[in-house]
Amino acid sequence: AVEYLKNNNIKYQSFDYLYENSESFEDIYSEAVEKVIAEAKNSEVTYTVPGNPVVAEKSVFLMIKRAKEENIKVKVFSALSSLESIYSALEYDPLSGLVVINAMDLNPSRLNKNMATLLVQVYAQHIASEAKLALMEVYPDTYPIIVVKAAGIEGLERIEEVPLYQLDRLDWIDHLTSVFIKPNQFPLPDEEMEISGNTEIERLVNIVSYLRSPNGCPWDQEQTPESIKKHIIEEAYEVVEAIETGEKDLLKDELGDLLLQVVLQAQMASEENIFDFEEVAESISDKLWRRHPHVFGKQTTDVNNGEQVKKLWEQIKNEEKDKRNGESYLSGIPRALPSLLRAEKVQRKASSVGFDWQTISGVFEKIWEEQKELKEAFDGGNKDEIADELGDLIFSLINFARWTKIDPEEALTRSTVKFITRFQKVEQNIKAQGKKFTDFSIDELEAMWQVAKL
């Protein structure tokens, strides 16, 4: 291009000297922009850059912004960018999935091992070094990467695969260098399998990612969010059981099993570019911050006890629903919840917007009413009506539990355990006599039951 300008006696000015005299890219961009804008106030100016002016050219966007401020008209001419040359050199279709990142702005949180990644503007040794350190927070030191120099330029193009740790040791890196990282390149050649992370959470995420990769576990690869959803419920119940036993080591193991289900679901979503585990954690963190204004907010919120906190939580939750196109207050309660818990949550939600009895006497009257209707349905002999009225009675009893701040699930569990304990005492009494249940009348069994209650 320079030779063309010279041969045709076209006046031009290079900004190469700025790269030699300036301390940072910000200084280079700032001075270049101001010089072009100053010239453009008096005459027409053409600012040229390699490739497409809107791809990896920060100075262009700074110039457009300043031109608008000075009411200077700007026309951008499109051209082939360096990216197309890199795709061709690598024989890679970006529609297969690709994240393009400026190496000078590389943040490890943006890296996704399930997606191909292209780092551009790895223009010098120190940038390569900084990029390497950032990449090592996500990839193993020996992870294979492809370094591309002068893609598409005959006689200068160079493509070489090296382990990550060697990136900043290459002496041929220059302003035309990029780094391409394929997804899930495991297991690593000539190396014992090792998957690590900066934290144990990160290690878990990395292990699950590898298990789902082409070189991972066939069972894990076959799973879908639907196929493993039942395991979430199973693991949650096992956590509850571990809590009830009081065995701390067992609880630790069961919490880990439940966490695995969360990580698996996040991994599957990540593979579809929907969200990842980091975004799951971010979502709940934001929610906790948002719904605790009495702790994190600038405004003073009058909250003095746990009950007031629960009311504030529901109030904020309802306000959030109001903002989502008039969504029902009850629509967020999952159908998959156990029936007792779902009924209690429905009642609590309705109560949070004022749909509730004024006093507990109304709750009692509803229980008596439903009890009477159940008797009438039973006398009528219609099973569907009996089922409906039985459900209404149970729903009313759960409402009573909510009013008295008793967990209906816990209350039913206690009654079940109590029944099992007493039944086993009766059972032991019968076995001690060398007899069976059928050898006793119902009155005799009742007498043993009363003894078991003592």
Query: What fraction, in percent, of the residue positions are helical?
Result: 40-55%
Q: Class by helix and strand content?
A: mainly alpha
Text of the CATH class of the largest domain? Alpha Beta
Cα-to-Cα separation, first versus last residue = 101 Å
Shape label: elongated
CATH topology descriptor of the largest domain: Methyltransferase, Cobalt-precorrin-4 Transmethylase, Domain 2
CATH architecture level-2 label of the largest domain: 2-Layer Sandwich
Low-confidence stretches: none
Number of helices: 18
Q: What is the element string, with H for helices and E for strands?
A: HHHHHEEHEEEHHHHHHHHHHHH
Number of strands: 5
Radius of gyration: 34 Å
Domain count: 5
Question: Could you give a quick summary of the protein structure above?
Answer:
This protein has 454 residues and is mainly alpha-helical. The protein has 18 helices and 5 strands.
